[in-house]
Amino acid sequence: LFIWFFSHLQCISTILQSLLRVHWWKLIWCPYIPYLMELLVAYRDDPAGYNMANFLSQEMTLDGDIFRGKYYDLIIISTPTISADWLEEKYDYDGFVFLSKHAAESGVLALTCHSTGNFSEAKFGGNDRQVAIPHPNLQKAYLQTLQKHQSEFSEFQITIEATHHGPTALTKPTIFIEIGTTEKQWTNTSLCISIAKLVHQVFLNIISENPVAICFGGTHYSSKFTTELLEGKCALGTVIPKHALDELDEELFSHIISQNKMAKFALLDWRGLGTNKQKILDLLKSTSLEIIKL
User: Fold this and answer.
1) Dihedral, CA of residue 138, residue 142, residue 144 and residue 145, to nearest 10
2) What is the per-residue pLDDT for 107?
């Protein structure tokens, strides 16, 4: 028996590693809860994303180009994350979480989290008039965790952003977690580690299911939708800001609905719809979404 065991040790080791990769131990612990395997992604030349990923990878096992972990896997890629529509050609996961810097002309310090997509021309990755499948429950869990630690980030605005930039073609839920807003923050290793620890904390727990709402109107940094996410019942799907509503026609609207199959509500920033208010109401008549006016 001992001779057989040692002669097959490498084979047994490979089998055990494979079981760990699919989180079999979690299924044994609680077989009725669906556990998903997410891939965290950072761009090597993005200082904020790299700093977060570098910290998280220290407690993970490198397997080829993938850092393997108990709660998620992680890769550091050599091309920008906003153009990572190719990921599923090589990696098979239940969702993609991009760790990234955040930039803004205003210079306002912000910690943000948003879904991806383009409502018109794709100027920053992805495809024209295409939105990715959002990651609403993860976004809500992360931003609520961030809010609980707000005293540690008193200089920063904690906010969602409207859906923007790529990638847009991935077939699994996609979300960006960002640190802003200048080189000073992106290269602040201590800040990046603090955010990375909160990302890790989110994955340590079962992420709650919430009713999901597609959002219409308002500014790029919507305080109304951020408040709903942090304090209300809804998680957020695609967020279409006021400036993008002119681009919305039946074809694009139908595509957004199809990418938000989990949605039950439509949140309307009632004063932030501009001249497109009636158009949005007419488009929503073709759906079963319950309208909530904010």
Assistant:
1) 140
2) 87
Which run of H or E residues covers position 242?
Answer: none
- pLDDT tens digits, one per residue of 17-61: 444 444 443 443 344 344 579 999 999 999 999 999 999 999 999
One-letter identity of residue 243: H
In one-letter notation, the amino acid at residue 26 is K
Amino acid of residue 92: D
Whole-structure pTM value: 0.88
List the structure tokens of 83: 């153009």
DSSP string, 54-78: HHHHTTSEEETTEEE-SS-EEEEES
Please give the Cα distance from 270 to 168 (Å, whole number).
Answer: 28
Q: Assign 175 to helix, strand or coil.
A: strand
Do the beta carbons of residue 126 and residue 116 sit within 8 Å? Answer: yes
What are the CA-CA distances from residue 286 to residues 217, 248, 254 (Å)?
A: 19, 14, 9
CB burial of residue 39 (10 Å; 0-12, 13-18, 19+): buried
Q: What secondary structure letter does DSSP report for 286?
A: T
d(CA 118, CA 127): 7
Tokens encoding 67: 């850092």
Strand 110-114 relative to strand 157-160, pairing: parallel
CA-CA-CA-CA torsion sign (223, 225, 229, 233): positive
- Encoded amino acid at 161, one letter: E
Q: Is the distance from CB of 149 to CB of 195 less than 8 angstroms? A: no
Residue with tokens 């990572």: 84
